[in-house]
Amino acid sequence: MIVGIHVDTLAFPPPGEGGAKRRMRGMLTETISETMANDAPKQNYQKQLEQILEKESGKCPRLLLHTCCAPCSSYCLEYLLSHFDITVFYYNPNITEEAEYRHRATEQHRLIEELGRDIGRTASFVEGKYDPQRFLEAAKGLEKCPEGGERCEKCFRLRLEEAAQYAVENGFDYFTTSLTISPLKNAPLLNTIGQEMGERYGIAFLPSDFKKKGGYQRSIELSEKYDLYRQDYCGCAFSKAEREEQKRKRAEENS
Asked: What's the pLDDT score for residue 13?
């Protein structure tokens, strides 16, 4: 168990943070992710991903990559673009403030274009329907759940089911999500839900734990390189309120 660390500061580091602190942040990130997977069977999702990449070498299958924001997708795109024909699927009805939603969508599109120019291979971009009421209905009765609890699982299911359906309807070979790069997200749970949705709709889910092998640290570096907007909460009004309360308590402790 990790004591005395606010995980929001791990997930969203300040711009210009030094290399030593960033490396320490990366190690803490992997440790925290392990504590969030108590109920799931132990699996090496990074190894599973590498095995699929080896199997698909030279084929460039079509991948639908669900993304939550530009910073989280940055490393995923850099890593996967040499292996897949990628379409970014920006579907996030959990972002309950429309201005925030639009800002993140704009940054996602900008990253795709700028990263694509730099590495010589780009992704397509598709925006799903923005319907925050659908998320609010799924979260009904779970408004007071802490981040990482049952409300988040409902949210994962909502977004990954939509991604699976879109992938099937549009002839993709695989679908996956950038969410596993975050230390605040339960990678085993996300993979379990993704595999469940893949089986339900008849589409292969690409397993991942993108924070591994320095992936999270690299996402921070890419966010700084492209000057990406980095929010300090997941997106829903409930996570925002929880984050504001954490900030208020820290301010009181430090005053």
From this structure: 52
| Three-class secondary structure of residue 95 per DSSP | coil
DSSP state of 90: E
CATH number at residue 214: 3.40.50.620
> Residue 252: what pLDDT?
83
pLDDT digits (tens, 9 = 90+) for 15-35: 455 555 544 444 444 444 444
Which stretches of the chain drop beneath a pLDDT of 70? Answer: 1-41
Give the pLDDT score at 42: 85
- 39 in a domain, yes or no? yes
Q: Give the distance between the most distant pair of CA atoms in the chain.
A: 58
Query: 10 Å Cβ neighbour count for 104?
Result: 23
Structural domain contains residue 210? yes
Q: Residue 174: what residue type?
A: Y
* pLDDT confidence of residue 251: 83
Q: Which residue, among 159, 158, 164, has the nearest Cα to 203 in the 3D structure? A: 164
Domain that holds residue 235: 7-254
Number of domains in the chain: 1
Q: Would 2 be classed as within a structural domain?
A: no
CA–CA separation, 194 vs 200, rounded Å?
Answer: 10
Which long-range CB contacts under 8 A does 30-34 form with residues at least 24 apart?
A: 30/183, 30/211, 30/212, 30/216, 31/2, 32/2, 32/5, 32/7, 32/183, 33/183, 33/186, 33/187, 33/209, 33/211
Does residue 1 form part of some domain? no
